[in-house]
Write a structure and sequence with these properties.
Elements lengths: L8 H7 L3 H17 L3 H8 L4 H15 L3 H9 L4 H20 L5 H29 L2 H29 L3 H24 L12 H6 L6 H10 L1 H16 L5 H25 L5 H23 L2 H34 L5 H26 L4 H21 L3 H15 L1
Helix pairs in contact: 1-8, 2-8, 2-9, 3-4, 4-7, 5-7, 5-16, 6-7, 6-9, 7-16, 8-13, 8-15, 11-16, 11-17, 12-13, 12-15, 12-16, 13-15, 14-15, 14-17
Length: 413
């Protein structure tokens, strides 16, 4: 049983890559918050594209961007750290430049911009986790990953708030926001690169070569595709239910959307530290149980009718966010703990592939299930998440088996 980590802000910043890297993450997240929530709006209002065309281009960009993840994993396993983080930021500068250069009605330039933005957005989480795993170890690393998520969500929220205020300026304001976003990415890339952090990849043990280059984590990766649906519940599922079934004021959806990052910023580090006394796999399975319970709570809330249903859904959304916080604090930490140092990059890249795929398909799955009624939507999500939690809890750690066989082989030699 692990000892509970204590929160020490200076140590947390140091374990997260140091002050300059923390500023880089904040600036990068601020720029992302300025543009990402309004990218669809940019395509529709500035470039005069149809909403469906814009949406398809954005989705295609995210999906195609996933193809780059194996290369990112190999790059990380050659020892690169801050360089990969900086590259993930610089590639988004290219995306913003294409966005600004695209003339009205030009869908292909917008699609290319979405692709480059998608590559950066997909590559950053794996590169960041690898950098933190190089600086910090054990439960300090878990707390550092949680701290970085807190900082990122806070900066994203500030950026989105500033962008919302500026939207009154119309298309000119949207172009200005895109330009500021590009400058923010450029500044963040320079700060991240200035950290000059890399590692010398260790040679894999002979036994690992015989059994494969990385732990398979099949159940974990498959479960993660379902787990990440929780990230789109406040943005897609709940507004869809509140608007189409309850005809509730948009203010309810807005309040739930705002409450989510506020809770993440407030609770991510304390909850991660509190649960550090348990194994990461146990905590990840627990997050699935909490998420499934929240989905069943949404199902029960929809049966209350228009009077009590809307506030009940808002209340249950807090439980869903707590499940998300537990999931986010344990999933990446588990991958970094399972993967040997020489294949950490590839393991994180595979994990990001499952995350990106889940985020890409979840809007389509949610919107397809919703018309069939609350039982189809929330019942299916609860059942799939419970099944995923069970798979996570029962999966055997390949790395542990390999090291055990290696030790026995050494003892017998």
């Amino acid at each position: 049983m692990a000892t509970t980590t204590k929160i020490q802000p200076r140590a947390l910043v140091r374990a997260s890559g140091g002050p300059r890297y923390a500023v880089a993450v904040a600036v990068d997240s601020l720029g992302t918050g300025l543009l990402r929530p309004f990218l669809l709006l940019y395509g529709v209002t500035v470039l005069r594209l149809s909403a469906s065309t814009t949406g398809i281009a954005m989705t295609a960009g995210v999906v195609v961007a996933l193809v780059c993840m194996p290369a990112v994993g190999r790059w990380l396993d050659r020892g690169a750290r801050s360089t990969v983080v900086a590259a993930s930021m610089l590639v988004r500068v290219v995306g913003v430049a294409l966005l600004l250069a695209a003339p009205a009605g030009h869908v292909w330039l917008f699609a290319m911009a979405a692709l480059f933005l998608g590559i950066g957005n997909q590559a950053w989480p794996a590169a960041h986790a690898a950098l933190v795993a190089t600086v910090a170890h054990g439960r300090e690393r878990d707390a550092a990953l949680a701290g970085a998520r807190t900082l990122r969500n806070a900066a994203l929220g500030v950026g989105a708030l500033l962008a919302t205020v500026c939207l009154a300026g119309g298309t000119t304001a949207l172009r200005a926001l895109a330009a500021v976003t590009g400058l923010a990415y450029l500044a963040a890339a320079a700060l991240a690169w200035s950290v000059h952090l890399r590692t010398h990849p260790a040679a894999p043990p002979a036994r690992d070569r015989a059994d494969g280059p990385a732990p398979r984590m099949r159940a974990l990766l498959a479960a993660n595709v379902i787990y990440v649906f929780c990230l789109n519940v406040p943005e897609i599922a709940l507004p869809l239910v509140l608007v189409t079934q309850f005809h509730a004021s948009p203010a309810w959806s807005g309040a739930i959307f705002v409450a989510n990052p506020v809770l993440v910023v407030t609770l991510q580090v304390p909850v991660t530290v509190l649960l550090s006394r348990f194994s990461r796999r146990t905590v990840l399975a627990l997050s699935g149980v909490v998420l499934a319970a929240s989905y069943l709570g949404f199902l029960a809330a929809t049966s209350l009718g228009h009077g009590w249903g809307t506030p009940a859904i808002a209340t249950v959304s807090v439980v869903c966010t707590i499940g998300e916080i537990i999931y986010a604090g344990s999933a990446t930490a588990l991958v970094t703990a399972l993967a040997p140092a020489h294949v950490l990059g590839r393991a994180l890249a595979r994990f990001q592939l499952s995350t990106g795929f889940g985020l890409a398909v979840s809007p389509a799955v949610i919107t397809a299930l919703a018309p069939h009624g609350p039982a189809a939507l929330w019942g299916s999500l609860a059942a799939a998440t419970l099944l995923s939690a069970s798979a996570v809890a029962t999966e055997k750690d390949q790395g542990t088996r390999l090291s055990g066989r290696w030790r026995r082989a050494r003892a017998g030699s």
